[in-house]
């Protein structure tokens, strides 16, 4: 198997224990390279992003507990029901990938925006399954920068009765600062991320990042 360049070969070694980056491979690095390119058109951006999302969802499902299940042979099944919860609007891009892996999965939505006066994440809207407290939740948002929106969304889920250990946060690109911020508040929430970037800059943008994911995914160019 061909080796990756040294600067791409491995994720940072000092990540919080609840962070689970995907194994780095040539395929994954190539997909990320394509969506980072500012010249990638919207159709290609969606195609390559969807491929990464599918890898993320499949890895996220690997972290759900299973129990023995006997049919014609002894196998396993998921321990409980699951649902997806997308942080609008960028997180909605990940819903199709979840549905491709889990037919008829229930999906909730949370809208969180930054309050211009306090600079804090503020909840504007939440629509969740009535029985969400009894489900495992896959929280969907492609970018993890400061962690403010994800932390607020997890707070909403916990307020609706979902234990930390039943929440798995799926995202495409994260950074060490955001991962640490989430661990400091919710250490039992597992984070499955496709790639951990270098850092946040002074403007709180991920470096190298890939721009505004929601705009690039949903807006024609």
From TrEMBL:
Cofactor(s) demanded: Mg(2+)
Ranges for domain Phosphoribosyltransferase: 25-219
Pathway the protein contributes to: Pyrimidine metabolism; UMP biosynthesis via salvage pathway; UMP from uracil: step 1/1
Name of the top EC class for this enzyme: transferase
Nucleotide-binding keyword on record: yes
The entry's keywords: Allosteric enzyme, Glycosyltransferase, GTP-binding, Nucleotide-binding, Transferase
One Pfam family, short name: UPRTase
A GO biological-process term: pyrimidine-containing compound salvage
Stored InterPro entries: PRTase-like, PRTase_dom
Record's keyword annotation contains Iron: no
Classification via SUPFAM superfamilies: PRTase-like
GO molecular function: GTP binding; uracil phosphoribosyltransferase activity
EC number(s) per entry: 2.4.2.9
Family under the similarity heading: Belongs to the UPRTase family.
Protein name stated in the entry: uracil phosphoribosyltransferase
Organism: Rhodotorula toruloides
